[in-house]
Amino acid sequence: MSRKEELEKQNSALKGALQDQLNNLRGDVQKVGKSALLIGGSLLATYLVVDALTAKRKKKKKNKSQARVEEKVVEKPVKDNWLLSTAKEQAVIFLLGLAAQQLANFLSELDSKDDKEDS
User: How far is CA 43 from CA 2, 71, 106, 107, in A?
Assistant: First the structure.
């Protein structure tokens, strides 16, 4: 076997190894991205649910003595009944539990990958 053939063989072996590493990295990035989107989405959903359920009423009033429109916030105390407050708490607990579970899965995957790399 000539020197040129050996170099071409080594070159193709290195290209294959690099392609495998690139495919593994691409898969890892997709998993991390999906986990981050799930965690972020569940936290956002929790925030939006809590914000929607505890939103204060706002009204716009036009002051006739001035040419421009001013926004005045009229706050009315929101009276939560027992059922509504319990439903809000349960929704928040459920969504935060989902986010915590996704985060724990993500961290355990990272730890297992680190252990495999160290071995």
Answer: 62, 31, 15, 17
Which amino acid is present at 12?
S
Give the pLDDT confidence score for residue 63 in this predicted structure: 54
Q: What is the DSSP string of 68-107?
A: S-B-----------HHHHHHHHHHHHHHHHHHHHHHHHHH
Taking the alpha carbons at both ends of the chain, their separation in whole angstroms is: 36
5-9, 83-87, 100-104: which has the highest mean pLDDT?
Answer: 5-9
Which positions ≥6 away from 89 have C-beta within 8 Å? none
Q: Which residue has the higher pLDDT, 100 or 63?
A: 100
Is residue 49 within 8 Å of residue 89, measured between CB atoms? no
Counting beta carbons within 10 angstroms of the beta carbon of residue 95, is it exposed (0 to 12), middle (13 to 18) or buried (19 or more)?
Answer: buried
